[in-house]
Write a structure and sequence with these properties.
Elements lengths: L2 H13 L4 H6 L5 E4 L2 E4 H11 L13
Antiparallel strand pairs: 1-2
């Protein structure tokens, strides 16, 4: 499994509330920008696990 595939899987699991793989593969110093707001690893996990109840993730092209 490539790193991208592993990250995709970790993201999908986090959206279902399981952040175990996300914790394992995402660096503790992770930061990104989202609409000029700095998002760190803990905030990212919180966002991902919270949106799982709000949206339905369908199959991606590579999942078909």
């Amino acid at each position: 499994m490539t790193k991208a595939e592993q990250f995709d899987r970790a993201t999908k699991l986090a959206m279902k509330g399981d952040v175990t793989l996300y914790d394992e593969i995402v660096h503790s110093d992770y930061e990104s920008m989202n609409q000029r707001v700095v998002v760190n690893k803990e905030m990212s996990k919180s966002i991902l696990s919270g949106i799982g109840d709000l949206i339905a993730v369908g199959p991606y092209a590579q999942d078909l």
